[in-house]
Amino acid sequence: MGKLPLYSSPSQSSSVYSFAWKLLAIAATSLALYTWSPFSDCHRFISNVSLDTGVYEDICSQPKPAASQSNYSQVYSTPEFLEESAKRLSGAIKIPTMTYDDMGPAESDERWAPFADFHKYLFKTYPVIHIEANLTIVGGYSLIYTFKGSDSSLKPLLLTAHQDVVPAVTSLDKWTHPPFSGVIDGGWIFGRGSEDCKNSLIALMTAVEHMLKSGWKPTRTLILAFGQDEEINGLAGAVNIEKHLKGIYGKNGIGMIVDEGGMGLDTQYGVQVALPGIAEKGYTNAFIEVDMIGGHSSVPSRYTTIGILSKIVSAIEDSNAFQPHIEKSSPIWGYLSCIAQYGAKSEIPDWIKQAVSSNNPDMKAVADRFAQTTPENRYMVQTSKAATLFNAGIKVNALAESATVTFNSRIDIFSSVEEVQNIYLNLIKSIAQTYSLRLNGASFSESPIGNISVIWEEGSSDPTPISPFTLAAPAWGVFARAVQASFGSDVISAPSAMNGNTDTRYYLDLSENIYRWNPARVGSTLNGHTVDEKIMTSAHVEGIRFFTELILQADDKSLEL
Ligand SMILES: *[C@@H]1O[C@H](CO)[C@@H](O)[C@H](O)[C@H]1NC(C)=O
Ligand SMILES: *[C@@H]1O[C@H](CO)[C@@H](O)[C@H](O)[C@H]1NC(C)=O
Ligand SMILES: *[C@@H]1O[C@H](CO)[C@@H](O)[C@H](O)[C@H]1NC(C)=O
Ligand SMILES: [Zn+2]
Description:
Helix content: 25-40%
Strand content: 15-25%
Bound molecules: 2-acetamido-2-deoxy-beta-D-glucopyranose, zinc ion
Shape: globular
Largest sheet: 7 strands, mixed
Number of helices: 14
Distance between the termini: 45 Å
Oligomer: single chain
Structural class: alpha/beta
């Protein structure tokens, strides 16, 4: 199968096909299915960015004066632009770039074929980008577009999204419009990937295409990188993207990274607040197995593998070992400070006011109170534990020789894989001692009745470092000003956390300034990973505006990111 018709030699290693792409891009300009709405005349971007040189003790100060909308995004307000943008996203949704947990290598698994179609679509839809950028393909289908800046002493800005979507192959009759139809209906774009994450990918491409077409030339190198397998593990995409970029720019060689994630733009306690994810939790799975001698169920042993395993599951579920936890360096402490400072006085709960104004707040009480607000908030400050797989027995009259359970944990940003694993092991050990079983080979009695083994997920990961979230960090200033310029001067930026993981867990070596944020208002994108995933057309345009302003704010040679 001619899987990669646009470029001749697909390979795991990276290669630059810029010349071939340029020729093809020129040829395709005339074939483009989607014509661009007329863009405004060429504007040179005049930088008026300067860092807030005010006081930094204030943990939540916002850039002053607020950044205003650039001339590039004026055209984004027209109905024509909205319609064209919605069509571009709709076209991207129609290509079913699904990744499955058992996906094989890019060169041998046919299920990767739609990714080649997706590349063709990008290429056709964004001709200027394909003339101006150097495109590098890694991992088979992951794309790295580099727009070289005029000042090579500036660390690049890296903006990322992923091409793949989670499968939509069941419950198809429940969708209002089929998941890969990309139907635009009543101000919404329907389909798998409309929220996660083709909205960001297409918004980035549309923003850059428009800027280039309007005459913008980067001062700071801009890199767009789109992985192919974020939804399954990122091992082909993000891992190879990191390897490639680290090879060129070195450790901490990237000034700032913005990827998907975060908690969107929400109105909370009377203030509109952009909530990027500043850190990511860690991740581990415990694979727990109980083995005992089997036998006929008519003459059972006192305890069975199923019974012992159940006690283990109960002990872990009943344990309070994982507690809410907030420190002063926590993004959530920053968030509470922002709410106290900018929220409507009548709406801010007393516990937040008291916590933030106290010289010596009771952090345990604050964490407990925050955890009670919503389940999502609880797990932003607490390690989770969930039994997700359970299996034992094959016959009604035979004792199961083996019983297994898997626990999944997302590790609090102030904890570690090691600490969490020790907590599990101590809980399991008490069962092993009480009922006389070996644990990972260790014996607690003369005659053990069986064995418990605990194996850990190979890809366990510690929580990420915490990116800076005060104006003392130029990168945070860039983010906050981009929010002001795109969503309004009254919108504040506050640090947040997130409960899932993104490709950025592989990018930690590239930059200390990593922000995870889908630029969309809460409620304007719905149903990620499930039936009727959709986004408002207006929200897609807002995303394009945010990325435009973000690129412009970062493109200031006076900023040392
Ligand atoms: C935007 O355009 C106006 C008028 O055309 C001009 O005065 C202004 O300087 C421009 N602003 C920026 C940031 O380029
Ligand atoms: C693209 O690559 C060529 C050759 O490696 C290089 O000369 C050029 O500056 C690069 N352009 C960009 C935009 O990175
Ligand atoms: C438990 O492990 C020991 C060795 O560690 C082995 O000899 C024994 O057969 C195991 N018992 C069961 C029931 O699997
Ligand atoms: Zn995603």
